[in-house]
Design brief:
The chain is of the alpha/beta class and about 750 residues long. About 30% of the residues lie in helices and about 20% in strands. It contains 22 helices and 25 strands. The structure holds beta-D-glucopyranose.
Length: about 750
């Protein structure tokens, strides 16, 4: 705390000095600290006049790729490396990670976010934060909360019911806050259920601090504060960017007039001061650029997802025999990150063509195949747009590429989305017509065609999938992606990346389709809990490639699974433990991402058919068997019960299915879990059914129902056929029926007895 600061000094501390620095207060011994983007590199602006150009730094794979590793250990190492770069560049807080759910595949910042699943997003982000903060640099968990679209992002109200909020959209934030204790949390631009996130007391104070125990600084997203007094009152500490002298003055005035509690401003300033005090002094040691580039390559190679590999076309034989055609400008000019605030100036940049030439003695030739458009408007295209033919220039490049493909043993076609950026959602999920045509014609000319994709948001493969035997999903892989692609193509790395989001067959199949991106300032999260694979599974819909999917150059078989309920022990909460042996049945060392999906058939509440509850990326040598143990803390089995306003574990037989993807489940074990005692108070407004389903209520109401306890004749209300009809009626309403044995007096007595 900073008790000696005047109100004016306190107010001044709660807004920035400029775009990237906090305000110093020399008298109080507080220097300015530097914060900067994030999340997959350090974007320290080199020149204040040039917004998006930073000093060179390692551009690690953006979250769309790092998530596909399903490996928290890699994320922790990325965090550590970023921490070192921050220290070297004098940055105290790195603005990331972003854990908003990929609600729609059209989300413009999906390349900066991890997944459509909150457990995967939260687990990976927590590891990243732990790695970063272990180097004495703070994280800024963003964008809190429900910032899952770019359309009207500064104003739109995301309308979400509380259970969905808790279980889906807040869950990753909760995991990171409680497990990794980020120094700061960044509040989102948008409104949540009608209130700006920046002035949302329930989000910023009740949930974040009172429930989750967050003790760091809540910082605004850049320009997110509409009313600074309201925001600080709700729990915001630091407004960015600055300066905002007029706002500082308004805060001081609000304290003077009693509109803002003095203690709240003192607390906000105290938190900013504490952040400054724990920040490292600028001038840290340098870092090993080559080692960080190598780490970026390792993560990128582990992020690549092999979607299709008919006839074992991949890996390619690197020996001198044969010739390879590399086709597509993205093979030479990589797409390696998205646009906007996360754009890093890479310390070096590898392209796939160079990596391929270096990786083989075969003859490699190149044809660009298409022009790379400069225009950001040419994003992934809507299906309806996919009808246009190539322009003249493209037609020539296409013909040249097809001729090259025809004369080579194998054709590698590099295509992808043309541009993705913060600030704009995508128009569709399809490759541009030019890229689709290139795939079709090359595949027709050469049956050994491999498609390599570069994209930050989901691209559907359905329109051309059948035409090619092999597809490599190469995301946006950061500065070392070119070498990583070569590593996978030649089998130096056996692919183990898995989809962190579903690839739909059609956009209109997607659970979010009818309610994205909303209109006139509102977006209704109509699919509720059924985000991503949860929605596809609930409707038993076919998909292009399911959540969790990814092939390997080897094969794995699963033995029988066992599941046991564990009691809490030192260092471990109670929960379920699932064990399964996994054998590498091929002749190559590999890595299997073992996934555990839990269901509760017959649950009394609405649930997805299965939910990811644990996973592990496990190396298994050829022919070897790994005994894999996955644990689910009991709290992760809970649903949010809006009747009692808390997390509740429903008792029952939990089905624990382990497998290779959400739709490739290989073994199931069932275990009985005792439920929480979450009795909902019985009132006169509770229905007869609710009374009868409650162990205590059933006993009380049964006698009253027949009305025979005082010697009067049986009213017939106990008749099972009639009970079906009556079950849905609240007791107070039943009491209004003439002849009902449940008179108002009887109901009052029942309620009194039930609450004793
Ligand atoms: C973005 C944040 C970013 C901030 C600072 C905002 O536009 O939403 O993610 O950290 O700018 O660049």
């Amino acid at each position: 705390m900073t008790p000696d600061l005047t109100v004016a000094q306190q107010a001044a501390l709660t807004s920035g000095r400029d775009f990237w620095q906090t305000k110093p207060d020399e008298a109080a011994g507080l220097p300015a600290i530097t914060v900067t983007d994030g999340p997959h590199g350090v974007r320290l602006q080199a020149d204040p006049r040039v917004m998006l150009r930073g000093r060179p730094a390692t551009c690690f794979p953006p979250a769309v790729a790092s998530a596909a590793t399903w490996d928290p250990e890699l994320l922790r190492r990325m965090g550590e490396a970023l921490g070192q770069e921050c220290r070297a560049l004098g940055v105290a807080v790195l603005l990331g990670p972003g854990v908003n759910l990929k609600r729609s595949p059209l989300g413009g910042r999906n390349f900066e976010y991890f997944s459509e699943d909150p457990l995967l997003a939260g687990t990976l982000a927590a590891a990243w934060v732990q790695g970063l903060q272990s180097r004495g640099v703070g994280a800024s968990l963003k964008h809190y909360a429900v910032n899952s679209q770019e359309t009207d992002r500064m104003r739109v109200s995301a309308e979400v019911d509380e259970r969905t909020l808790r279980e889906m959209y807040l869950r990753a934030f909760q995991r990171v806050v409680t497990q990794a204790r980020p120094w700061t949390v960044m509040c989102a631009y948008n409104k949540v259920n009608g209130e700006y996130a920046s002035q949302h007391h329930w989000l910023l104070t009740q949930v974040l601090r009172d429930e989750w125990g967050f003790d760091g600084v809540v910082v605004s997203d850049w320009g997110a504060v509409a009313d600074r007094v309201a925001a600080v009152a709700a729990g915001l500490d630091l407004t960015m960017p600055g300066p905002d002298d007029a706002g500082d003055q308004r805060l001081a005035d609000a304290v003077a007039s009693g509109r803002l509690p003095a203690a709240r401003l003192r607390q906000a300033a105290g938190r900013v001061a504490a952040l400054v005090r724990k920040s490292p002094a600028p001038g840290g040691p340098g870092y090993d650029q080559a080692a960080h580039h190598a780490l970026a390559r390792e993560i990128a190679s582990r992020a690549i997802v092999l979607l299709k590999n008919e006839g074992g076309l991949l890996p390619l034989d690197p020996s001198p025999a044969g010739s390879l055609a590399v086709i597509g400008e993205f093979g030479r000019t990589p797409r390696y990150q998205g646009g906007g605030s996360s754009q890093i100036t890479p310390s070096r940049l590898d392209d796939a063509l160079t990596g391929i030439i270096a990786g083989t003695q075969a003859e490699v030739s190149f044809a660009p195949g298409y022009l790379v458009a400069e225009s950001p408007s040419e994003q992934r295209v809507a299906a309806a747009d996919g009808v246009g033919g190539p322009a003249d220039q493209d037609r020539d490049l296409l013909a040249e590429a097809v001729a090259l493909a025809r004369g080579c043993d194998t054709a590698l076609v590099f295509v992808g989305s043309l541009h993705e950026t913060e600030g704009a959602d995508a128009a569709g999920l399809d490759l541009s017509p030019v890229h689709q045509e290139l795939i079709r014609q090359v595949a027709a000319a050469n049956p050994r065609t491999v498609v390599v994709l570069s994209n930050g948001g989901v691209l559907r493969t359905a329109p051309w999938d059948e035409a090619v035997p092999a597809i490599v999903e190469g995301w946006l892989l950061g500065q070392a992606g070119g070498g990583a692609i070569a590593d996978v193509l030649f089998g130096r790395v056996n692919p183990s990346g898995r989809l962190a989001e579903t690839i739909p067959l059609r956009l209109s199949d997607h659970p979010s389709y009818l309610d994205f991106p909303g209109e006139h300032g509102h977006v209704r999260y109509g699919e509720g809990l059924f985000v991503g694979y949860r929605g596809f599974d609930a409707r038993d819909q076919p998909v292009g490639y399911p959540f969790g999917f990814g092939l390997s150059y080897t094969t794995f078989s699963y033995g029988p699974a066992s599941a046991t309920v564990l009691a809490a022990a030192e260092g471990r909460p109670d929960g379920i433990e699932v064990r399964v042996p996994v054998t590498n049945t091929g002749d190559r060392d590999g890595r299997e991402v073992v996934q555990l999906y839990v269901s509760l058939p017959g649950s009394r509440v609405s649930r997805a058919p299965r939910e990811l509850k644990a996973f592990a990326s496990v190396p298994v040598a050829a022919g070897a068997t790994a005994e894999v143990t996955l644990t689910v803390p009991r709290e992760d089995l809970a649903y949010w019960d809006t009747r009692v306003n808390r997390w509740v574990v429903e008792g029952g037989a939990y089905h624990c299915a382990v497998g290779s993807s959400s739709r490739d489940l290989r073994a199931v074990a069932v275990t009985e879990v005792a439920g929480d005692d979450a009795r909902v108070p019985l009132t006169a407004d509770s229905t007869l059914g609710e009374w009868l389903d409650d162990p205590r209520g059933a006993g009380l109401v049964a006698d009253a129902l027949t009305g025979t306890q005082d010697g009067t004749p049986d009213s017939g209300y106990g008749d099972p056929a009639l009970l079906v009809l009556l079950r849905g009626i609240p007791l107070a309403r039943l009491a209004l029926f003439p002849g009902s044995p449940l008179t108002p007096e009887v109901v009052a007595a029942l309620v009194a007895a039930a609450s004793r």
